[in-house]
Amino acid sequence: MSYVPGTPIVVTESDGVGLTTPEPYVRHVKVLLSPMLQEGLEDFAVGTCEVPPQQMGSLHTHPDAAEIWMFSEGHGRAVIGEEEIVTGPGTVVYTPPGVSHQFFNTGDTPVKLFWMYSPSGAERDVIEAEFG
């Protein structure tokens, strides 16, 4: 889809491009906004992630992009570099470029969050279904 500057882009979660990652890091990840999906979009990406109860994301780093997590449902624990952060609805976590990070769902319900990469690029793995 092409983006016309000065006009809004409206997508729903069902419009997203994504995948479910395999054990032991089960999560449902979708990209909603990205220059790879909306040609002409500015240099950022936004998506969603749902982490089932007692599951976790892989420990990873984005060398050239910051990642922001905005939690809307569920409870968990984020490890950002050497720091541990308790998360719940309304929590926003910023990870600078090059800092390792991982998320753990510590609850009995799914954790739902929006994520953002700035600049874009790291979402390519999700779009191309090569995300671990």
Structure, described:
- The chain is mainly beta.
- 3% of the residues lie in helices and 39% in strands.
- It is built from one helix and nine strands; from the N terminus they run βββββββββα.
- The strands form two sheets. It has a six-stranded antiparallel beta sheet, with no helix packed on it.
- It is globular, with a radius of gyration of 14 Å.
Beta strands, count: 9
Radius of gyration: 14 Å
Cα-to-Cα separation, first versus last residue: 27 Å
**Strand and helix order:** EEEEEEEEEH
Strand content: 35-45%
Low-confidence spans: none
Largest sheet: 6 strands, antiparallel
Lateral arrangement of strands in the main beta sheet: 1-2-3-9-4-7
Report helical residue fraction. under 10%
Annotate the secondary structure layout.
Blueprint: E1 17-20, E2 28-33, E3 45-51, E4 66-73, E5 76-80, E6 83-87, E7 92-95, E8 101-105, E9 111-118, H1 124-127
Antiparallel strand pairs: 1-2, 2-3, 3-9, 4-7, 4-9, 5-6, 5-8
